[in-house]
């Protein structure tokens, strides 16, 4: 793997494939959002989110994946993972951070079904 290669590729619950680049992890997330424990926490949030919110800004499409307790350091908070879409079925992680609540803008794309 090169310094800019993929750390992982993961399929989300909607069947779309996201890539986490090493340059995004090392150059942005781990440097600017030290509260995010690991690339594995980001991967888990993409693979098994609580819910996904879609956003459209002009021609740019993105989704934000949320998962409560994905970061061991802050289990009471949600990990938010922002993905930028290159095609309808392929994208890349652009950032990740912890938050108390989800953004209010955007449209819910997917919600985990509660098991009874």
What labels would you give this structure?
17% helix; single chain; alpha+beta
Task: Describe this protein's structure.
- The structure is a single chain.
- By secondary structure, the chain is α+β, with helices and mostly antiparallel strands.
- It has one domain.
- Helices cover 17% and strands 43% of the residues.
- It has helices spanning 22-32, 39-47, and strands at 6-11, 17-21, 51-57, 60-68, 78-85, 90-99, 107-111.
- It has a seven-stranded mixed beta sheet with strand order 1-2-6-5-4-3-7.
- A hairpin with a 5-residue loop joins β1 (6-11) and β2.
- It is globular.
- The model has no long low-confidence stretch (mean pLDDT 93).
Put the structure in a nutshell.
This protein is α+β, with helices and mostly antiparallel strands and 116 residues long. Helices cover 17% and strands 43% of the residues. The protein has helices at residues 22-32, 39-47; strands spanning 6-11, 17-21, 51-57, 60-68, 78-85, 90-99, 107-111.
């Amino acid at each position: 793997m090169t310094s800019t290669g993929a750390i992982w590729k993961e399929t989300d619950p909607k069947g779309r494939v996201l890539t986490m680049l090493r340059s995004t992890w090392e150059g942005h997330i781990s440097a600017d959002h030290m509260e995010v424990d690991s690339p594995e926490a980001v991967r888990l949030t993409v693979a098994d989110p609580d819910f996904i919110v879609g956003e459209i800004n002009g021609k740019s499409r993105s989704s934000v994946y949320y998962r409560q307790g994905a970061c061991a350091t802050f289990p009471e908070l949600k990990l938010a993972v922002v993905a930028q879409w290159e095609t309808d079925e392929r994208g890349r992680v652009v950032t990740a951070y912890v938050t108390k609540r989800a953004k209010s803008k955007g449209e819910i794309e997917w919600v985990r079904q509660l098991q009874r």
